[in-house]
Amino acid sequence: DHVWTLLFPDVSLRVAQVRLQKLHRHGYLKRLYVPFVMDGEHAPPLHRGQPIYRLTRRGLRLLSERADRSAPSTKEPANASVMPLEHHLVVTDVLVALAVACRSGGSLELSDLRHEGVFLAQLRACRKSARIANAIVPDGGFQLRHTLTGTTETFYLEVVRADVRGGNGSLLHKLRRYVELHRAGFFRTAYGTTDLRAVLFLTTSEVRVCHLHTVVLKLA
């Protein structure tokens, strides 16, 4: 659905599927599936039969040859486990929805989108010239540009799906670290972010929203 919505908005889903199947058959893409268990109580995932496509080494090499700048890596990544995969899909859901919403040509433009892998690559590059301890890598990020004023605002995304290891204390420590790093100019140095507006936390229920709100109040 992500690929179809972003790249094939004017054709049927079937046309997009055929194109992806061809790329898979010729070795440019690899298919992954998220497994699930039927327990008789919960409904199966809405898109349980949809494959998740990722670039193979051959696909990465092609992008590196065709792009203005080199691809982040030409090494094919190892198979991801289920939890990280579902975690990344939540971020992708948000970023794709934003990209589609900003096509309307209103007063906001989406000028930048980044997933965790891009932030990681930038952090590695930054660490070659500076010693950085206890860095934070956002799960995703995007930048909005106000067309009337030309000003921009950057937002980071953090996904909290499972119980946080260490409970609220661990989450509070991360939030405080966000504040410290922001004041120290880390996000500007490592990721080039000079206009960080907010960190948006995505979670699964109203109960967790209340827990997050309680933790955030302790920052005051």
3D architecture notes:
The chain is of the alpha+beta class and 220 residues long. It has helices at 2-7, 13-25, 57-66, 82-101, 116-127, 167-184, 186-191, 206-217; strands spanning 29-32, 52-55, 108-115, 140-146, 152-160, 196-203. The chain has a four-stranded mixed sheet with strand order 3-4-5-6. The protein has a two-stranded antiparallel ribbon with strand order 1-2. The longest helix is centred in the middle third of the chain and has 20 residues, at 82-101. The model has no long low-confidence stretch (mean pLDDT 84).
Q: Taking strands numbered 1, 2, ... along the chain, how are they ordered across the largest sheet? A: 3-4-5-6
Strand content: 15-25%
Q: What's the story with the biggest beta sheet?
A: 4 strands, mixed
SS-derived structural category: alpha+beta
The overall strand count is: 6
Topology pattern, helix = H, strand = E: HHEEHHEHEEHHEH
Distance between the termini: 41 Å
Based on Cα principal axes, name the global outline.
Answer: globular
Helicity range of the residues?
40-55%
**Helix count, per DSSP?**
8
Mean pLDDT: 84
What is the radius of gyration? 19 Å
Catalogue the unreliable spans.
Answer: none
